Structure formats: C-alpha cells, structure tokens
TrEMBL record:
It comes from the Eukaryota. It is a lipid-anchor. The lineage of its organism: Eukaryota, Metazoa, Chordata, Craniata, Vertebrata. InterPro entries: PCMT, SAM-dependent_MTases_sf. Belongs to the methyltransferase superfamily. L-isoaspartyl/D-aspartyl protein methyltransferase family. This is Protein-L-isoaspartate O-methyltransferase domain-containing protein 1. It is found in: Cytoplasm; Membrane. GO terms for cellular component: cytoplasm; membrane.
Length: 373
C-alpha cells in the first residue's frame, strides 16, 4: 500500500508531499514526522527508497507506507499524558513519533512477534536518544517493546487510551481489540481492507469510522500443539517515574524554556521563500502605422540599431537566466539541508546550556541522557 504522494529526496521533502496531499493535517503530527528521519529505520543499502510513499520489507523488518502512518497518527488524536499500545510495533518508528507527542508522563508500549525485530527497534531507539538533535526539542516518552503475539495478551492486562494494530485484523478478533481500550479511547486498525478508527463511547458502545482503503498482511496466530495453552503476553507494567527521573525531565524543560526566551532564534533557521522568476519585457520602437481594413495598426520597423539592441538584450537575457538557474540550484540544495520548518543547526543549544552549568560532570552527563554528541 502506498504511492499516493510524490517521492521526495529527503525526509523533509517527504513530509512536504504528505502535507500537500492532506495526509498530514496538524502541527504536532508534522513536528513528529520531521523529527524522526524515516531513512534511519532502513537497513544499509536500502535507504534509496526511504522517502518514497511505499511500504518496505526485508525479512521480518517492515515499514508501512508513509501515507498510512500519517493517517494513523492523525486518527489517533494524540495528546500529552495518554497511554499508547502498538500491536505489531515493528521497527519502533511509529512508537517513537508517538512518544514525542504524548510526553514523559504518557505510557508507550509495543508488542512485536519477532525477537529480531524487537532487538532492531531497541537499537534504533537507542540511536535516536544518543545521537539525534531532535531528541532535545521534545519531552519524550520512551517506548518499551516486548516480544509476543498480540492475539495472546493476558486477560488481566490494563487498558489504554490509544491503540494501533499494524496488521490485518479478522472480524472475529475485533471485539478482542476493543476490550483493550479505555472508555473515551481510540483504536485504529485495518479490518477487511479498510483502516478504521473506533472510539469507545461507553462500557458497551463504540463508534466506527472508515479512514482509508488499505491492504495489510493478516495477524499471525502462532502454531502450537493441540490442546496446549498459549503463552500469555505480559504487557509492561505502568510505573511512576522516580524522583531522580522527574528532576531530569523538569530541569531539561526549564533550561529549554529559558534558552528559548533568551535567544528565540538561536540555533534555528528557516527556509528562505522561493524566488520568483522575472520576465523581461522588450520594448519595440514604433516607426509607422498601417491601415488594415478600417483599423489603424502600429507596426514596428526594424533597423540596424534595433537589431543591435535585440542582440544585446538577448545576451543579457541569457546571462540573467543562467544566473537565476544557478541561484535556484543553490537554494534547492540549501532547502534540502534545512527543511521547510524550523530545525536545529549543528549547534545544540540545550546541550550547550547544560554544559555551562556549574555542576559535576556526572550530573551533566545524566541530564544529557548520556548523549554522545
């Protein structure tokens, strides 16, 4: 499923195209998509296709098309502090974007069938926390991934505000999914070639809305010996953050706010507005008038002087066009580097602020989440 929008050259191009096609419609979803480079979740040698609106699969590793993820993110109506369950969490790409929106006081859990994919997701999450400048722009809810079949979740598991299932759900499993949802919560999942948004309006009442025609591989039911009981999947516990962790969250938030107030433009760049081409209008000298029928029409009479002026103007037009093309080429290269919205430069202002504090080095390292740069 995919191909609904034009291919981009980088992540910002992809997001621009998703916005233009109205798959991304809200600012918070746009910010999350721009903060997480889709190409970082591809294997080496496969990244050339990262910014096309296409699904990608290599062994057990799988990413849905960008247009699917954007519709899912919009349909979930995410807010800070919500609990989220990702059934078939895969590479963790979607869960990481969700974590940027629901913030440090949310809950972010994922269940994935394949052990190797869970390990891959943990590696990508660790790389994002340790190396991405985008991490310092948000209060983050770190996803927790567990291995298991999402159709075998323990019956006494807690419920969630938001749930997404990334595989095709058969109709007879619909109620099973609904039970995992809190009253007032939203479940997004594919059923019978339709991506559906289900809102739980009461203990026994739901509202459904079709979002998009899709094609998903079905949920996998593990093979087991006849009569044997499946191993129930235990979801991660919902725990309260430690006082130490809460202190780190609030110190970083305070420093970020202070830095933004002191230097609102420091470390930020914006894409320059696109330049418009100017068309030259060549003025022709009118030498005489002629009658055509009963109308008097001016007619330009060429002379050697006119021909010389024409040649000079033609040469000037060519030089101007070459200059304009060179400027546009340079501008396009710059735009690919900085994107169409504000992003961090190479200088990480929050990191710089922390490093200037009169604190022990070990505490600075803790405040930076042990980031490598």
């Amino acid at each position: 499923m995919g191909g609904a929008v034009s291919a981009g050259e980088d992540n910002d191009d992809l997001i621009d195209n998703l916005k233009e096609a109205q798959y991304i419609r809200t600012g918070r979803v746009e910010q999350a998509f721009r903060a997480i480079d889709r190409g970082d979740y591809y294997l080496d040698g496969c990244r050339d296709n990262a910014y096309k609106d296409l699904a990608w699969k290599n062994g057990n590793i799988h990413l849905s098309a960008p247009c699917i993820y954007s519709e899912v993110m919009e349909a979930l109506k995410l807010q800070q502090g919500l609990s989220f369950l990702n059934l078939g969490s895969g590479t963790g790409y979607l869960s990481t974007m969700v974590g940027l929106i629901i913030g440090p006081f949310g809950v972010n859990h994922g269940v994935e069938l394949h052990t190797d994919v869970v390990e891959y997701a943990k590696e990508k999450l660790d790389d994002f926390i340790k190396n991405s400048d985008s991490f310092d722009k948000f209060d983050f809810c770190e996803p927790i991934f567990v291995v298991g079949n999402c159709l075998e979740i323990s019956s006494d598991s807690h419920q969630y505000d938001r749930i997404y299932c990334g595989a095709g759900v058969q109709k007879d499993h619909e109620n099973y999914m609904k039970i995992l949802l809190k009253v007032g919560g939203i479940l997004v999942m594919p059923i019978e070639d339709q991506l559906i948004q289900i809102t739980r309006t009461g203990q026994c009442s739901w509202e459904s809305k079709n979002i998009l025609a899709v094609s998903f591989a079905p949920l996998v039911q593990k093979n087991r010996a006849e009569g044997s009981k499946p191993d129930a999947v235990e979801l991660p516990p919902v725990t309260v953050r430690s006082l130490q962790d809460l202190s780190r969250v609030y110190i970083r938030r305070t420093l970020r706010d202070l830095t933004n107030e002191e230097c609102p433009d420091k470390g930020l760049v914006q894409r320059a507005p696109q330049k418009r081409k100017r068309r030259r209008c060549r003025l022709r000298r009118i030498n005489t008038y002629v009658f055509v029928g009963n109308q008097l029409i001016p007619q330009a009479m060429e002379s050697e002087e006119d021909e010389r002026i024409d040649q000079e103007q033609h040469k000037e037009d060519q030089e101007q066009q070459e200059t304009q093309e060179q400027q546009e080429k340079e501008q396009e290269e710059e735009e690919r580097d900085i994107g169409s919205v504000e992003i961090l430069k190479a200088v990480n202002v929050l990191r710089d602020k922390i490093m200037t504090l009169p604190l022990p080095e070990s505490l600075k390292t803790y405040l930076l989440y042990y980031r490598e740069k």
